[in-house]
Amino acid sequence: MADNKSTPDHYGVLLYYKYTLIPDVNELFNLYNTNCNSLSLLGRVRLSPNGVNVTIGGKLASLEKHIATMKSNPLFEGTDFKLATCHQPSMDKVAEECGFTSLSIRIVKELVTFGSHPLSKPPEISNVGQHLSAAEFHSMLQNGGNLVEENNPQKLILLDARNLYETRIGKFYTPTVETLDPAIRQYSDLPSWIDNNSEKLKGKCVLMYCTGGIRCEMASAYVRSKGPGFENVFQLYGGIQRYLEQYPDGGFFKGKNFVFDHRVSVGSLDTNILGSCLLCKTAYDDYSSRSRCSYCRMLVLVCDNCRERVYEYVCELCHDNGKRVPLLLSVENEELHETTISPDLEVCVTMNASQKNGATSRKLRILCLHGFRQNASGFKGRLASLAKKLKNIAELVFINGPHELPFIYQPRDENLNHISVCAEQSSQPPKSCSKKFAWLVDPNISWKGDADWKVADGPFDSLQYQQQTQGFDESLGYLKKVYLQEGPFDGILGFSQGAAMAASVCGLQQKLKGEIEFRFVILCSGFAVNMGYEKGSINCPSLHVFGNEKGDDRQITSQTSRDLESLFEEGSRVTIEHEFGHIIPTRSPYIDQIKSFLHRFL
């Protein structure tokens, strides 16, 4: 524990994790819920059958009481509780985005999501690399790896297990040791990087580090699981945080340590700045503005001066993959002129007067997916008001789903075997009937063809969507053709079952590169179908619109839509709850919130 010379009323942040078999996760959930609420602690608690991962904040006295409670539990024997004093978070954007304005306790499959594929099996945590104390880690860097088996010397490789936005502002460096920076957007991308770069690690002494240690546990086990030649893997126990506590001058760590709470980053006595502004390249390492890439929503460094003139950014990774934001022209003093910031990055300059009034030189193209038993023309009619209010910034494109459905009617007589006179006279659908479509269908559905009516099996079933689980592959192939013929599209809007389809596509973004690409998704009254993803694991900017408990949505409950929302990364999702049931509201303030979300991508 850090030496805190502050009074108990001062604020602090506590980080700890523990991989251990949890016999009763629900019981542990109740313990955390009771303890944290009684002590007014805020932050994130993640529980799984294999352990816990905790980042919470509150008064130091309360945090110390929490630690005492956990230490009295045999499950937490040997746990490294990392407690640090800091300022109390305000109710600002940073604190909210980092989860420090509320308490979130969740039961998850993995403490940290390792691997982007939902069916991939995580490595055995019992096979982790050897833990090194801060002093041992420092000594190994100082000696260039000479401490590793004198009779079997191996080249030392330093591997950073963190994300690119973290390594931008701080990392370990010594000229005698080669450092590998995977430059990944998210931790779940690390296994693929290891697979693609295994030859750089084979036969080497791999020295890993991360913020607090938990990511190295899974990553080191994964490297070691590759077999002969990958045995010598070491990791910094307690992470960068413990290292900086022991070496307050920074030691071999240069810059600042990015942290996932309201502090944003923690530095050493060395005040040198490692990071730089994405646009003008001046020294800069402050993420407080929470500026993000317009495509992947990864955090980017943009200095105060550039933020005053620029509102759209493209991160290094997206730029290297050919992504660009068109340079807009701005009008000031009635003279047209062009503003450029950096020769190698294209950006959007500050909105001119006409843009602030709603007009823009480029509209977003949004592909719209209707709900079950709907069609493009009907959905277009339902969204006419939305399309009108977004006409200056977006073009809505409507398509039919690939699965045609039978016409269904409900007999007037309660006896379902008795068909009304009207139906007897015409078994053919009248010409005025429009065909209905779906993205997913019930595997038990059967009908004779589009010339037949189908008698309803019974009254409306609000849970029918749970049986509609087949047809995804056909729908995905169909969307690929749509993109090829009608694309590109900036985003996808899905309603009800269309939202379920769109969300499933979001989960496959990495696999669909070059076939189905988009920058954001809007999910309205949505639900998840056979997705199998961990909470917070889908990295796609998302807007979730659904009715709250008062909204009386007979088809999709608010909790069902919240469950879908929870699958998307917290920092990249926006939620709009309303009281109007199974619709997309277009009155204020909802339309203003929708416009605000879309303006990020103009």
From TrEMBL:
Signal peptide: none annotated. This is Rhodanese domain-containing protein. It holds the Pfam family Rhodanese_C. It comes from Daucus carota subsp. sativus. PROSITE patterns: RHODANESE_3 (PS50206). InterPro entries: AB_hydrolase_fold, FSH-like_dom, Rhodanese-like_dom, Rhodanese-like_dom_sf, Rhodanese_C, TrhO, TRHO_N. Residues 152-252 form the Rhodanese domain. SUPFAM superfamilies: alpha/beta-Hydrolases, Rhodanese/Cell cycle control phosphatase. It comes from the Eukaryota.
